[in-house]
Write a structure and sequence with these properties.
Layout (H helix, E strand, L loop, with lengths): L16 H18 L8 H30 L3 H6 L4 H16 L4
Helix pairs in contact: 1-2, 2-4
Length: 105
């Protein structure tokens, strides 16, 4: 990730700020051209709000991933021995935490 593409919401996030902006630009352009929604606020303000929400939601996912990693640390020996599949365990624990916290993944 280059300095100009530094993540605006943490080192571990998968998307950069320019990538998020491109997604939002495309989304708003599609809404506008298909007349799915009618904008009651200036387009720039809408894009700013969407970016903020997008970043917050990505951060929730990353924070959850970090918590799952922390929980799974206690099973590293079983993962290394092949007794447990880390990827499957990660998804199971993540799904359970998301369900308990009512987080939509």
């Amino acid at each position: 990730m280059t300095e100009s593409e530094t993540s605006c919401y943490g080192e571990d996030m998968r998307l950069t700020e320019p990538e998020i902006q491109r997604i939002i630009e495309k989304l708003v352009a599609e809404w506008k051209s298909s007349q799915i929604v009618r904008f009651e606020i200036p387009e720039l303000k809408l894009k700013e709000r969407l970016a903020k929400i997008f970043i917050q939601e990505l951060k929730v996912d990353d924070d959850l991933n970090k918590e799952v990693d922390k929980i799974l640390q206690q099973y590293e020996k079983q993962f290394e021995s092949g007794a447990l599949d880390r990827r499957k365990m990660f998804q199971m624990v993540k799904n359970q935490l998301a369900k308990e916290r009512r987080i939509v993944l």
